[in-house]
């Protein structure tokens, strides 16, 4: 006979969670003060969007909107405020941030929750390296506010006050998996799935016959690379292959890779940042490729936001980052599950 889990609203369970939640509030206030001191404007993106995002492995919550005339239309809860935020950049905003509530379906676990908070910010006419400094500052701010000297998760630690290590994706694949990643990427960004699969098998990674280059890339990342990132000090994993950076512009010095980085601490991915792509035709091509991949794997696709592509033609050069705020609070407070830092967790299915 299985016992019924104690609900989150049980007074004793809430008392255990409350210290984490109190620190969440303190970190929220500190983050807002930091952005305001940096000259940012806080914005609030609408959650209901025509497209929730066009990445193959992101899954949305969808709903029907009914107008006053009774006509119905399909809308989606956004998986990120990115499309709306970039429209604001096209409108003339230059430094914005959003502590956005976002929703992602098919995700639940110690680090995943169906509804969570994404801290997203953009700087016009700034290189994406500026966002690396922003990320380092936010890690230190969260730790200082929580009164800790170390970020922690599952026994791992990282010094939030240390300068993050900067490693390219190609360097990390060579270091942790013995894989020459860029040997499988052509000058125009095309990828060789067979060549990457052969290297993965040599590294002891199981590969299926119908796995694409992206499938193998992800498997190497999850099994060999991510478990080694962000211990001792944070890691900035940068220069992703363009095939894995659908919203980022290529690096001028090497178009095989893009201006994308992810921030890790204690093996946990905390942030994802881009030097933003502003070419509408190229963005459409990438979105269509992502949706083709989604249809291949999951049998579904999301619409492309034509209004977003129109705005992109008017968007100035910019860099943007999205940071999992709940995860940041977890690592700063020592929480072990994301529900510990969420005031009212979503009911289990």
Question: Layout of SSEs?
Answer:
Elements: H1 11-37, E1 41-42, E2 48-49, E3 62-66, E4 72-77, H2 82-91, E5 95-103, E6 115-124, H3 128-146, E7 151-153, E8 156-158, E9 165-168, H4 169-177, H5 193-202, H6 213-225, E10 235-238, E11 250-251, E12 254-258, E13 260-265, E14 268-275, H7 280-298, H8 306-312, E15 318-324, H9 325-333
Parallel strand pairs: 1-5, 9-10
Antiparallel strand pairs: 2-4, 3-4, 5-6, 6-15, 7-8, 10-13, 11-12, 13-14, 14-15
> What is the helix/strand order?
HEEEEHEEHEEEHHHEEEEEHHEH
Number of strands: 15
SS-based class: alpha+beta
Radius of gyration: 20 Å
Strand line-up in the sheet with most strands: 1-5-6-15-14-13-10-9
Quick rundown:
With 349 residues, this protein is α+β, with helices and mostly antiparallel strands.
Describe this structure in words.
Helix content is 35%, strand content 22%. The protein has helices at residues 11-37, 82-91, 128-146, 169-177, 193-202, 213-225, 280-298, 306-312, 325-333; strands at 41-42, 48-49, 62-66, 72-77, 95-103, 115-124, 151-153, 156-158, 165-168, 235-238, 250-251, 254-258, 260-265, 268-275, 318-324. An eight-stranded mixed sheet has the order 1-5-6-15-14-13-10-9, with helices on both faces. It has a three-stranded antiparallel sheet with strand order 2-4-3, with no helix packed on it. A hairpin with a 5-residue loop joins strand 3 (62-66) and strand 4 (72-77). Helix 1 (11-37) crosses helix 3 and helix 4 crosses helix 6 (213-225). It is globular, with a radius of gyration of 20 Å. The mean pLDDT is 95.
